[in-house]
Amino acid sequence: MEKLDATVQEGNVLLGTSTKYAAGASGDGISAEDIQSLTTTIADATTKDTMQKTAMQTVADLTAQQNKGMERGLAHIRKTQNAAKAAFGENDRQRMKEFHVGGNSLTTVKAMVTELSYMKSTAATNKTELAKSGFKDADLTEFDTITQALSDVDVKQENAKKVQKNATTARDEAMNGLRGVMKKIRNTAKVIFAGRKDVLVEFEPIPAGRSAAVKKEEPVKPAGQ
Hints:
Elements: H1 5-20, H2 32-88, H3 93-98, H4 109-125, H5 127-131, H6 137-192, H7 197-203
Helix pairs in contact: 1-2, 1-6, 2-4, 2-6, 4-6
């Protein structure tokens, strides 16, 4: 769904027009109630949009952390496999199969966590041989460290996705509410200012692709031209 930016801008423009033609002592004009309703829905839509954008950024940040965790896990698995290659030789097909050398790609957190657990167990079983290739006790501990960090960020990301979904729903509802108030005011204006095209044109929506706040400036020409 489109961002609220254009809708909020249009709401602010309509707010200015509505205030300009607010009902006076005679009662002809946009009511104070409608003006307040527009003011409130603009503020609500702006707040909800900010919350949605914040939630979306949180998910993006956690996804980046998750990707780094996946890369860290893959790097440690490769390190373990290289230690196995050095210890047993790449021609030892049984050992290479045991260490999943040339195995399937790991594209999900679940698959990575499972593989890290398996690889730790395999490395622990062959600890003495791998140690001769520089594989240390700290490398075994690293499996747990990576797994814990990856699992933690995965939980946070899944929760953040739920927050983002709820924030998006709230944002969309706020936008629909704002649009509803704007439509009501425009229809009211058509009744109150019927026959006054000069006034009604001020209540019309901003044409698509145009901005009410940005004015295109002519380029500055060099002197003498």
